[in-house]
Amino acid sequence: MKEWKELLENKITAELKEQINIFETQIELKRMGKVEDQLFAETRLRKGVYGQRYDNGQRHDGNETRELNFPSGDLLKGPETVWDAPGMLRIKIPFGSLNPEQMRVLADLSEEYADGILHITTRQDFQYHYVHIDDTPTIMRRLASVGITTHEACGNVTRNVTACPKSGVCHGEAFDVSPYAKAMTEFMLDHPDCQDFGRKFKISFSGCSEDACGIVKMHDLGAVAKIQDGKKGFEIYVGGGLGAVAHEAKVMYGFLPEEEILPLAQAIGRVFTRLGEKKNRAKARIKFLVVKLGLEEFIRIVEEERKQLPHDDKWTGYIDELPAWGEQPKKEVIPLNDAEKPSGFDFWMQKNVKPQRQNGYMIVTIMLPLGDLSSHQMRQLADIVEKYIGNTVRTTVEQNFVLRWVSEADLPDIYKELSAIGLADVGAGTIIDITACPGTDTCKLGIASSRGLAAELRQMLSPEKMELDEEVQKLRIKISGCFNSCAQHHIADLGFYGNSRTFKGYKVPHFQVVLGGAWKNNAGNFGMAMGAVPSKNIPKVVLKLTEYYVDNRISKDQSFHEYYASQNKSDVKSLLIEFAEIPPYMENSDFYTDWGDPRVFTLGDMGVGECAGEVVSLTEVELASAERICFEAQVQLDEGNLEDAEGKAYKSMLRGATALLRKEFQDVPSDPNDIVLQFKEHFYDTKIFYDRFAKGKFGKYLIHRNENPPTDLNNDLVHRKIEESQLFLEAAYACYARLRDVETKENRG
């Protein structure tokens, strides 16, 4: 054992060795009660260690749901329960690049210390679930021995740097951005100027502006490769982000020379550290700083900071090595010709294989249902990569694998070997290639089962079950378990995020339907919520929206996004109305359970009356009215009436606040200032409006709007105000449900 440990230690860099040793010491200090919970929470997050939930007790693997038996409790919740339950470990994979040796180590560790499943995230990372914190230093050392770290995988730091998985082999790219993503990763990791952010900072690189592989417009800092006058550089975007309220990044520079990309990131990091919000996490991302300062002022401050930076050789040192950068294929080009093709090969070839820029070589996308593969599959895949490709494979932001440098003649054998381990599913990049966050399976913030819904939709829309229109097959579906856009629902053709509604004493899982997003053009458009629908009706919504599009588009070439953008929002919303109805529990109890979980979504003994004519409370009527006003704001925005749209967004929040006030008090003011004052006094300051999902931040949207009416309106600003209004109403519904729960318990007592 001692010799094995010494061999392992010799493979780890001094920096990683020190980081892991420090973390192990901090764990021991925490065990002895010498480190405060809050401080240790930030420490473990920076090492990629998260807590996770267990109340669902399910894990969805494609079409299969497995029961899990793990201890209850929250990882590191407090001194008494610090060591009670396993949690999640996030592993950084810069720009998604892996080699076979790393793949085998990842597989081994998943099998030995987790549940044997490797999950690819929308940042090209890996996640292990059900890992005990006592085992994390050992896992980190073994990962470090093959050049992988978990350091700064989470926390208020620079997260994993992502890039197009086709970088270097893509037809449309200006140049290969991989070495720049690698240089950025190494430069920003543990950089002293980037350790005191108020929130996380995300960076992405894209080789072109048209395709979506880098989705730079939803990042804090995005770089699109560009050549100007024969010189390499980047179009720079700043201030993007999804989350609860999406912000589209703005062009900071039309062209920035390659030697300036690292000092720019450092200068932005220093400005973000100095001027970014620290106390209010809801406003601490850099997108809020850009809005607060204005783009021009932000640029001015960053440029002043850049002038003051002491020179660092790292800024340009990697550029001298660029001529030597590049991947070498393992096999020579041999055409496919008349090679024998196994059953199903042609269809797989059509859907999952594309030619790369280098003649004769192909790109193979391995579609992973829900972003998961087993340790066995990972180990076998490493063998395939080593045998046919060589030394590199890429993960994608759509939770898949990409194999590059595949010689045409090897495709039939690769297909057979992938089929043998269950990794030849057809449909990469199509409607069944659904992105989903962990949701209620393991995430503490999950409201509805995103993975369960994704598995259901994938099964329903599979080619074996349904023949779909060619354009419908191209649609992207993305599902988040809550309003936080971890699955990037804002940039999907069909986006959904989880919420809940209370109906006659029962909580019913719902999803908001988000339309108008665009995956193309590096996340070219962000969608907006159209209305909440019971979770069990979402499959019908997908069929209705796609069928209506096929029946009414002006031509077969009109994309779903183009068609939706041309439609009157009221007409589109009318399509959803029939699916919003909730049947009584005794009539159809299935609506009161979530996908993949047979248990009632909440306790079912709430004293429900049998009378079909049960009175609907005035609070519910007014909340529904507030939602209607919020939707009217969207219509006004579409018509270019910015002032009316913003005014209605504000009015909808006022109506929602009034609904809550009327629930508790007989006399409710009509003056907006008085409504906000009473809402703040009775709901916000008392934390009645505070819950574990929003943590009160959505209440600030109303208060801030009342105190700071916007003056210089633009489309982006009003778009955000409408999203804020919708989120305020979601929180109002949740608050009303909690008030009803309290009343029920008191009546029982």
Explain how this protein is built.
- This protein is α+β, with helices and mostly antiparallel strands and 749 residues long.
- The protein is 40% helix and 16% strand.
- It has five domains: 2-144, no CATH class; 162-322, Sulfite Reductase Hemoprotein, domain 1; 345-420, Alpha-Beta Plaits, CATH 3.30.70.3340; 433-614, 2-Layer Sandwich (Sulfite Reductase Hemoprotein, domain 1), CATH 3.30.413; 617-749, Nucleotidyltransferases  domain 2 (Four Helix Bundle (Hemerythrin (Met), subunit A)).
- The protein has a five-stranded antiparallel sheet. The chain has a five-stranded antiparallel sheet with strand order 5-16-17-14-13. Strands 8-9-10-11-12 form a five-stranded mixed sheet.
- It is globular and about 80 Å long.
**What characteristic shape results from the CA principal axes?**
globular
Percent range for β-strand residues = 15-25%
Radius of gyration: 26 Å
User: How large is the count of helical segments?
Assistant: 24
Query: Mind telling me which CATH architecture of the largest domain this is?
Result: 2-Layer Sandwich
Largest sheet: 5 strands, antiparallel
Structural class: alpha+beta
According to CATH, the homologous superfamily of the largest domain is: Sulfite Reductase Hemoprotein, domain 1
Helix content: 25-40%
Q: Which CATH class of the largest domain applies here?
A: Alpha Beta
Which consecutive residue ranges, at least 5 long each, have pLDDT under 50?
57-83, 603-615
Number of domains: 5
Question: Roughly how many Å apart are the termini?
Answer: 61 Å
